[in-house]
Design a protein that fits this description.
By secondary structure, the protein is an alpha/beta fold. It folds into four domains: about 55 residues; about 170 residues, no CATH class; about 110 residues, HAD superfamily/HAD-like (Rossmann fold); about 120 residues, HAD superfamily/HAD-like (Rossmann fold, 3-Layer(aba) Sandwich). It is about 45% helix and about 10% strand. Helix 4 packs across helix 13 and helix 11 runs antiparallel to helix 13. It is elongated, with a radius of gyration of 27 Å.
């Protein structure tokens, strides 16, 4: 590449890097510096008549992610956001490449082969564009040529910044640094390492790895890199209960060992259940019967979040009395336990002239109560939902939960309530307040994508999906919420601490 173009790119990088630490402040001078850097990179590409001076592996990966997300019906993150994360991936691969002993690759390269089912995979991944990709020859380099120039390649790898350095820069700009931050699944991440090079015939580290027959190996390395660092900085696990530590009345055999391990390594944890059909006393007794020690201040419920909201001055709702105080008459579509929680909190539970309406996981629901609920909601009364779960897992299947009942009301009355359990931001705020940990120090662990995993989506907190409850691995393919880590159950999660 001509020296003058290299100098333009280097100048662009200096301007961009210098502005990163203050970009989150939206300082006009910083924005100007970064904009100048971006313009310079564009000039370099124009002079070179190609995108290579400012577009490489990170763009190959980013475009692949975008294509796959659109194919799955998802809305991808902005291109620049994806490029930032892809840069971390690219640098990690370069650093891993530097660890390779080229002398040990001769046999591997002599037996070079495309990934299994390559043509079938390309057709599936690229759809109508597959034929063009299959008919285009990749710019391959022979092994001897790579070996001859290995010292120069190694020097390039050594001279690049470590991925952690770029990660810190992106964090300063409040940009995503984890696949889950942009709802990127592990499957798509791995596929991008293996197949993204085919999207554009430019020689990048992906092409180099292909020539060395290392693509599938590096796909595993990238996947493991993010898995092993997924929980870095986490200081408190928010453990879901049903489907995670037990199923109905059956305690999973790995639960006690996992909890003992957390105590041994001094990892904080709390329990949190969205299930509003029982009260805290019930769950404390249940854990005691299962020989799981838990104090009242370590067990949280969706009901707690709602009652906390109502107790605050900015959370008062309903009809106001003549003296300016809010009404405290509530119609509770829920179990006796939920009604008792509201009574204990000082509310008058009634089905006559309520000031507001609350819907919980009502296992006692009958048609008469459902009709009253719809009538009150239809009349315009404030309407709150405790938890949005659609189903509650039980031994042998599921039963309709609060979210399913809310859907029935919506069809009849045309209104969906605000929910306060997971994944509501109110739950996250409540946990931060009650546990004393910062958002980035919390990690939600549970079996549901739309509650447990969604609680951390777009947040600084982390999430771990366990496959011991409602969610199956294939559900991730169409999910809008991607966890930082997927494990079969808590016994596997133990390996990450």
């Amino acid at each position: 590449m001509p020296k003058d173009i290299v100098e333009i790119v280097e100048n662009a990088l200096e301007k961009i890097i210098a502005g990163v630490p203050r970009i989150a402040e939206r300082d006009l001078k910083v924005i100007k510096s970064i904009t100048e850097g971006l313009i310079l990179s564009g000039i370099a590409m124009s002079l070179y008549k190609d995108s290579r001076p400012a577009s490489g592996t990170e763009h190959h990966l980013s475009h692949f992610w975008e294509m796959r997300m659109y194919a799955q019906g998802k809305v991808p993150a902005l291109h620049g956001i994806k490029v930032g994360l892809a840069t971390i991936v690219s640098l990690f691969m370069w650093k891993e490449l530097a660890k390779i002993d080229i002398n040990n690759l001769q046999t591997k390269c002599d037996a070079i082969k495309l990934p299994s089912k390559y043509e079938e995979d390309i057709r599936q991944l690229y759809g109508i564009n597959a034929e063009q990709i299959l008919q285009t020859t990749n710019p391959n380099l022979p092994f001897e040529h790579i070996k001859t120039n290995w010292e120069a390649i190694h020097k390039i790898a050594e001279g690049l910044p470590p991925p952690r350095e770029i990660e810190q820069m992106l964090k300063l700009a409040s940009a995503p640094v984890r696949p889950a931050d942009i709802n990127l699944s592990d499957d798509v991440l791995r596929d991008s390492v293996i197949y993204a090079r085919d999207r554009k015939k430019t020689y990048t580290v992906l092409q180099l790895l292909g020539d060395l027959n290392l693509l599938e190996d590096f796909a595993d390395r990238v996947s493991n890199y993010f898995a092993k660092t997924a929980l870095k900085g986490v200081k408190c696990l928010v453990l879901d209960m049903d489907g995670t530590i037990y199923l109905s009345d059956y305690l999973f055999p790995f639960t006690k060992n996992f909890l003992e391990h957390l105590s041994k390594i001094e990892m904080n944890h709390v329990f949190y259940t969205n299930n509003s059909s029982q009260n805290k006393s019930h769950y404390l007794k249940k854990l005691e019967r299962m020989d799981i020690p838990c104090s009242s201040d370590k067990l949280f419920m969706s009901t707690d979040v709602l009652l906390s909201y109502l107790s605050r001055s900015d959370g008062k709702i309903g009809t106001y009395k003549s003296d300016g105080t809010p009404g405290n008459r509530v119609f509770v579509a829920g179990t006796k336990a939920l009604m008792q929680d509201f009574t204990d909190a000082g509310y008058i539970v009634t089905d006559t002239n309520p000031d507001f309406v609350v819907l919980g996981f009502d296992t006692d629901m009958d048609y008469e109560r459902l009709t009253k609920l719809c009538d009150f909601v239809r009349s315009g009364l404030p309407y709150l939902g405790v938890n949005m779960d659609y189903n509650c897992p039980i031994d042998g299947g599921f039963i309709p939960d609060c979210g399913a009942l809310a859907a029935a009301v919506e069809v009849s009355a045309g209104i969906m309530p605000e929910f306060f359990g997971k994944p509501s931001t109110r739950t996250l705020d409540y946990l931060i307040e009650k546990t004393g940990f910062r958002e980035e120090e919390l990690c939600f662990v549970g079996d549901r994508l739309y509650t447990d995993i969604a609680s951390a989506s777009g947040k600084k907190s982390r999430s771990v999906l366990v496959l011991s409850g409602e969610t199956k691995l294939e559900d991730l393919q169409t999910s809008d919420f991607i966890p930082d880590l997927v494990v079969s159950d808590l016994s596997e999660l133990k390996e990450y601490f």
